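quick q for whoever's on today - can somebody do inverse folding on this one?? i tried earlier but teh output was garbage lol. tokens:
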């Protein structure tokens, strides 16, 4: 049990509306295709929080550029250990559990990838236990020249007081450390874990007996070109508003679509209905 975690001291998504692809989406595609970034950046509009047309589920990671917030921080908990092994796979000894591959990119505030960024992962085993003696299910790695990373592990087990999660520290060269956690969509305990943040949900899919997750980290690292002021993307239309307290079965509209509230909550930036299927269902 994570004694330092507040939550541990006691025991088909809607299709996005047609919009231009986000700056980060175009960059991801360019990086995957090996296209030179300068030529890509010249034609990419600076769009904040735009969705990926035709893809599902909608993008959950906070988009970068236009002054949007970096990836949220979360508590470290009591089980972090320094000096973890340098490795991209945590499957030493063929451990039991559902195989999981997590991929993604590390970006700065202008949506440019960060090469050689440190990512240090640690998690529970299939039974929900952390290895505090050795380094099972612990390891660090660095992003490649395109800012990409890949982690091979298992789906972590559950233990009292928490939903399913993976811990991670992310650090750009010479910058401060982001400590946070990654979460799994569709987990019942997401609704009861007091520190769960839907902005940290991975996008998941099943590949045979294995799972594949993705998440892009946005670090508070200034880059050129910097954010625009005011943002180049007009504010979204609809009745949903950040700061509003919603009750179950309340109805809102957002960017031309209607949504029904699934559970009571107070809305905040990053919790827009298309981004949080745990809180909103397309009507």
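ok took a stab at it. sequence:
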């Amino acid at each position: 049990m994570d004694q330092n975690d507040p939550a541990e001291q006691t025991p088909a998504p809607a299709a996005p509306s047609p919009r231009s692809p986000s700056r980060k989406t175009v960059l991801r595609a360019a990086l995957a295709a090996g296209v030179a970034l300068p030529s890509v950046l010249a034609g990419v509009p600076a769009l904040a929080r735009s969705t990926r047309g035709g893809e599902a589920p909608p993008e959950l990671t906070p988009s970068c550029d236009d002054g949007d917030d970096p990836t949220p921080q979360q508590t470290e908990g009591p089980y972090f250990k320094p000096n973890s092994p340098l490795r991209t796979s945590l499957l030493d000894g063929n451990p039991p559990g559902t195989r999981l591959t997590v991929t993604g990119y590390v970006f700065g505030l202008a949506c440019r990838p960060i090469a050689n960024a440190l990512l240090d992962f640690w998690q529970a085993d299939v039974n929900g236990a952390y290895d505090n003696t050795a380094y099972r299910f612990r390891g660090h790695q660095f992003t490649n020249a395109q800012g990409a990373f890949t982690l091979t592990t298992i789906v972590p087990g559950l233990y009292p007081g928490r939903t399913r999660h993976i811990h991670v520290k992310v650090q750009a060269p010479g910058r401060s450390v982001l400590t946070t956690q990654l979460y799994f969509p569709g987990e019942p305990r997401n609704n009861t874990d007091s520190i769960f943040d839907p902005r940290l949900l991975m996008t998941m899919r099943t590949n045979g007996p294995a799972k594949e997750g993705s998440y892009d980290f946005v670090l508070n690292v200034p880059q050129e070109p910097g954010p625009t002021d005011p943002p180049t993307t007009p504010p979204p239309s609809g009745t949903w508003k950040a700061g509003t307290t919603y009750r179950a079965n309340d109805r809102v509209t957002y960017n031309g679509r209607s949504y029904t509230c699934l559970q009571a909550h107070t809305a905040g930036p990053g919790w827009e209905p298309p981004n949080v299927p745990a809180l909103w269902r397309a009507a």
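fwiw The first strand starts at residue 99 and ends at 107. also Residues 163 and 184 are 9 Å apart (CA to CA). so keep that in mind when u check it
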